[in-house]
Amino acid sequence: xxxxxxxxxxxxxxxxxxxLIITATLAVSTALIxxxxxxxxxxxxxxxxxxxxxxxxxxxxxxxxxxVWQAFAIIRAPLHETADDxxxxxxxxxxxxxxxxxxxxxxxxxxxxxxxxRKLDDEFAHLARMxxxxxxxxxxxxDFAGARRFYAAVPVAExxxxxxxxxxxxxxxxxLPRFRAGAWRGAGIGLLVLAVLLPINWYWGxxxxxxxxxxxxxxxxxxxxxxxxxxPGTYAYDDELGRLFDSYGLMVKSLREKTLLEExxxxxxxxAAIGRLSxxxxxxxxxxxxxxxxxxxxxxxxxxxxxxxxxxxxxxERGLTQIRDTVSAMLVxxxxxxxDFAPHDLEDIRLLLAxxxxxxAVEIDIQCGLTEPVALPATLVRQILLNLLLNAVHAxxxxxxxxxxxxxxxxxxxxxxxxxxxxxxxxLMDHLFEPFVSGNEEGHGLGLWITYQIVTQLGGQIAAxxxxxxxxxxVTLPVGENxx
Amino acid sequence: xxxxxxxGVLAALLALSAAAADDRTTPVRIGLTPTFPHDQYRxxxxxxxxxxxxxxxxxxxxxxxxxxxxxxxxxxxxxxxxWICDYPYVHFKKQVKLLAVxxxxxxxxxxxxxxxxxxxxxxxxxxxxxxxxxxxxDPYSNTGYLAPRLELQLAGGDPARFxxxxxxxxxxxxxxxSVATGLADGGAISSHVWDTLSIGKPELTRAARVVTKxxxxxxxxxxxxxxxxxxxxxxxxxxxxxxxxxxxxxxLLKELNLDGFIVGDARLYERTERLIxxxxxx
Lengths: 484, 282
Known about the structure:
By secondary structure, chain A is an alpha+beta fold. Chain A has 10 helices and 12 strands. A 5-stranded antiparallel sheet of chain A has the order 2-1-5-4-3. A 5-stranded mixed sheet of chain A has the order 7-9-10-12-11, with helices on one face. Chain A has a two-stranded antiparallel sheet with strand order 6-8. In chain A, helix 5 packs antiparallel against helix 6 (about 305-330) and helix 7 packs parallel to helix 8 (about 380-395). The longest helix of chain A is centred in the middle third of the chain and has 63 residues, at about 240-300. By secondary structure, chain B is α/β, with parallel strands linked by helices. Chain B folds into 2 domains: about 25-110 and about 220-270, Periplasmic binding protein-like II (D-Maltodextrin-Binding Protein, domain 2); about 110-215, D-Maltodextrin-Binding Protein, domain 2 (3-Layer(aba) Sandwich). Chain B contains 11 helices and 13 strands. Chain B has helices spanning about 1-25, 40-55, 65-75, 85-90, 140-155, 170-180, 190-200, 200-205, 230-240, 245-255, 270-280, and strands at about 30, 60-65, 80-85, 95-105, 110, 110-115, 135, 165-170, 185-190, 210-215, 215-220, 220-225, 260. Chain B is globular, with a radius of gyration of 21 Å. The interface of A and B includes residues 67, 69, 104, 107 and 109 of A.
């Protein structure tokens, strides 16, 4: 693969654009330069042909009368004009006789009268051959490859009878600088165009590439599973790229939702499985346990006097009672019927927690948004509130305040507890509602599990969140019809 | 018979009155030749106006490059006066009367200068110009044609074959230009034109070099047509002779590079006459 094709768009777009601009500018400049060369040449051809014809006509009578001075004055006239950059001045004008000897030349010092031009140099010899070969009035321009000069050779003739030849000589030394000046001008314009277009192209390339690059990076992140990686930024316009950005946003959002949903489902299923397992175990334990406790009660009654046996039985009884308590705690039964949860229950909760709060030096601020009872079993809601608030109190640092808000939100009861203190570690968050998982040393790790079981059985949801030094639990319970 | 006599008297009277009218309104016609730089318009126009004021008559200048044309015009009575070269004056002596002779640097004489381009450092005499291009002024010029031919003859050359090519430039000034530009390898011009141009156009005389100077010849004279009336002749002669006596005349003479005019006589031109004979004999 060509490494050039693997370059980032950041470089590829400006490079290709620049290449195109340079190519186009070069092409246009070259065309302009070629055009100016052609213009200059055709100007020279037409002006020298016209000058040649005029002079040939004028000089005819001077030549036929052998009036050297008159002929000299005629061919000197075009050269006496003041030098003007716009005009290519002939280097020399000469009138030749029928034998291609100089009748008169504008520069008699270098080309004296009666010089045979064949003896001047190769170019003039060539010119003489061409004049002899082509004596007609056409093709007055003689220009051969590699020559140092241009020649316009016009016959001095009347009705086809040739008296001589008028030759106008242009030096390339005059022609080339003018062409070079034109070429430099063309090149200068080209450079100016490049100087303007290339930075614009670079800027445009960067601008076009930047969102693509951001999108590519973000897509790469997502492909690696980093769904929470920073977004590729915004793109303000509604073109294909804009639609791509929108689609990308939607895709990432739905991916993220799907992932969250999957995690939630896995957690719920795990919790449900644990719930079923623990309920099953609790039942299996409860049945023999009931029998054992009954048997133990009978045994106690029969051997009331035996002090030693009594002690042993008491140990057994306490152990079995603890087992029963634990098991029954795991057997959450939401099907308890009772009165509805009412605002005064919150007052009870406050009283119940006052001692614990005082001991931990924590304030509890309960905001009651209820005015009438809610169709939810009071025992269970109280249990939820007690569990959450006790956790919050224990998790709070000293002299902090635990916030609690209870309110109706469109067909459901919403409970929020908020406390300061160290955040819940992310690895604990996943297993937060499982039994025997605890954030601190003291708790047995059943509080939140029980809360979760109650909430789930009531058809509600519970979510925990640690952010900005605050930990918040939010419980949403669907409210049925009033029991009252 | 009687009628014829009466008619004759009438015709004579008419002719007289016409002649009298002519004196005031018919212009004096003066021919100018390249014997002096006659193509300078501005100073010559001032001279013409000066003459008109002095003569109280219109004055016309007729410029012709070729001496023979001016001589023809004199012969055809198209001109009354002319400033010509000494050679045609001597040659056509019967057709003209000497009016006045210009004085330059105190003498009524001038010379022929043999000139070559300034770049030519080697030419010492006309013989060094063998097989070169030579510019003459006019076949009726003394200093620009006869004098160099005599010089060549005296030196043993044949003027008809000596040069590679010759041409007439039809004025002293153009001979100088031909030599200065290199068109001609040599030429002959009047000393007066050379001196005048060395003041007015020094770049021209700097580009050329005087090789030899001829003997003195009578200065190119002002002549009158033979048939010009005495009164007219005298008026014109007086005008020329009196030019140095007024300021404007002096200024004009300065521009013509002359001291003034004298009456002169035919003896001034004896050498020219001998020259014509010497060259003509050949």
